[in-house]
Amino acid sequence: MRRSALVIGGGSAIGRAVVRALNALGTDVLFTSSHSSRRKELETALNGSFRVLDVTKEQDVHNIFEAPADFDGVIYLASNHYFNSLRNFNCERCLNTLHLNSLGFVTVAKAFQALAMRSPDKRARSLVYVSSIAAHKPEIGILDYSASKALGSGLVRLLSIEMARQNIRVNAVSPGWVASARADMVSKTLGDEKVAEIRKRYPLGLGKPEQVAETVVFLVSEQSSWLTGQDLLLDGGRCLS
After folding, report:
1. pTM
2. What CATH number matches the domain at 4-240, 3.30.565.10, 3.40.50.720, 3.30.70.20, 3.40.630.10?
3. Which of 37, 74, 101, 195 is paired with 222 by a 20 to 30 Å CA distance?
4. Closest of 202, 186, 196 to residue 234, by C-alpha
5. Given this model, what pLDDT does residue 65 score?
6. Burial category of 39 from C-beta neighbours within 10 Å (exposed 0-12, middle 13-18, buried 19 and up)
């Protein structure tokens, strides 16, 4: 039987790499983006079905999982990132970030659990949360983002216990700096000197979206059948320095 996967946030650099990696394994992929304007671009660039999805709207999330939808794996990449520190902290903006980056993940987990419970079979499934090195090694200037990813990584451990009853593994991967259009924008903000300093902190160099995708695919696959509640650091050695 062909395997199927849902990639939430498939329009990001890592999301696209994940979709392509799953395609290469013959997996049927449904990928989403919150931006309807990107439909044509994404449908042209990626092989799979596309849906617009705002993960902050609980009913919209549950609609994605309604029958006849049936996923073996679900990958959560929905995320927002901006620079801020305590000096310019804003509670409402932080709550919006938490909703998108981590609480939306719980809504997805709830819908995925319901799908598994109504399924006639009890086959193994996998839920993967794409966290960040910021959950483990926070830095000044990314207060909201670090907090949201730390919450998401903590939720992975909690959900793994509860969802094991439905034979769903729940794991996370925490990438460091990965080359992407977003990273290029950040580089322009930081300046060449700061970026050069960041590069020196990565013993194996900066990452590529494909390297993250390979780890995500491993966590979705049956090769990780006895792995749950884990958060795999994928940072080229950054946290060792």
Report:
1. 0.94
2. 3.40.50.720
3. 101
4. 202
5. 98
6. middle
pLDDT of residue 188: 62
Rounded Cα gap, residues 223 and 46, in angstroms: 25
Residue type, 9: G
The tokens for 72 are: 């073996």
**HEC states along the chain?**
CCCEEEEECCCCHHHHHHHHHHHHCCCEEEEEECCHHHHHHHHHHCCCEEEECCCCCHHHHHHHCCCCCCCCEEEECCCCCCCECHHHCCHHHHHHHHHHHHHHHHHHHHHHHHHHHHCCCCCCEEEEEECCHHHCCCCCCEHHHHHHHHHHHHHHHHHHHHHHHHCEEEEEEEECCECCHHHHHHHHHHCHHHHHHHHHCCCCCCECHHHHHHHHHHHHCHHHCCCCCCEEEECCCHHHC
167 backbone φψ class: left, alpha, beta (φ>0; ψ -120 to 50)? left
Domain boundaries, the chain: 4-240
pLDDT at 38: 85
Q: What is the pLDDT of residue 115?
A: 97
Residue type, 56: T
Q: Which segments in the chain show pLDDT lower than 50?
A: none
Let me know if 202 is a catalytic residue: no
